[in-house]
Amino acid sequence: MQENMLVMPGDKIATEEEFLPGSNTYAEDGIIYAATTGRVKIADGKATVQTVARDIEKINRGMYIVGEVTDNMRSVMFVDIDTIYTKSKEFIAIKDGKIIIERQRPKPAFRERRGEAPRPERPQAPEKDCGVGDIILAKVQYNDPDAYTLTLDDSDSGVIHSVCDRCGSELEYNSKENVLICKECKYNQPRKISPHYNNAKSVEKLLLMT
Ligand SMILES: [Zn+2]
């Protein structure tokens, strides 16, 4: 449990061994739960939930999100999704996002039977649109029980901030060659680049449309 963590009714906050249940919480079988939506506060040995002025909604299908790529597995990348703040609302992610990496399908067997020359093997590594540490703009394609499935397929989506794999310096967008190039070592990395790269204002505008 973290202080200031956003909770919804029924979310587990702490145990009664750790804290006493404070306002806007209730205890059941030794577990303290949030009774309302708000932020967790700890004071004088009590865990309480402080209500927030804004309405809170869950991020849902069809929305644009911003998040950081945290893990790169063989066929899936995980994304830590940021809360979206509007004037009157807060859109929160109740779970991680994931990007499924498309794999090259094995070529169909009938090609060879027809006597066509087999094409050279493609490299094994699947194409990836982003890497760990990248900040991405993506669209929520599905709201699955375990995670939000995100897509980078539409024209606005892609990497909006990234640093160099080699030296950690910021990558800059080079419009001539349509690549991201390191300011320091000039290394360039293949990415699916969003047209909103390093443009917080236009990202915000897009997020507020949803
Ligand atoms: Zn570099």
Overview of the structural elements:
The structure is a single chain. The chain has 210 residues and is mainly beta. It has two domains: 6-52, RNA polymerase II/Efflux pump adaptor protein, barrel-sandwich hybrid domain (OB fold (Dihydrolipoamide Acetyltransferase, E2P), Beta Barrel); 57-209, Nucleic acid-binding proteins (OB fold (Dihydrolipoamide Acetyltransferase, E2P)). Helix content is 7%, strand content 40%. The protein contains two helices and 19 strands. It has helices at 110-113, 200-209, and strands spanning 6-7, 12-15, 20-21, 25-28, 31-34, 38-43, 46-51, 55-58, 64-72, 76-81, 84-85, 89-92, 97-100, 135-143, 148-151, 158-161, 171-174, 179-182, 188-189. A hairpin with a 3-residue loop joins strand 11 and strand 12 (89-92). The longest helix is centred in the C-terminal third of the chain and has 10 residues, at 200-209. It is elongated. The protein starts with 5 loop residues before the first strand and ends with a helix. Bound molecules: zinc ion. Zinc ion (ZN) binds at residues 164, 166-167, 169, 182, 184-185, 187.
Q: Identify the CATH homologous superfamily of the largest domain.
A: Nucleic acid-binding proteins
* Helix proportion: under 10%
Helix/sheet category: mainly beta
Strand numbers in spatial order across the main sheet: 9-10-13-15-14
Radius of gyration using CA atoms only: 22 Å
The number of strands is: 19
CATH class descriptor name of the largest domain:
Mainly Beta
Terminal residue distance = 30 Å
Return the domain count: 2
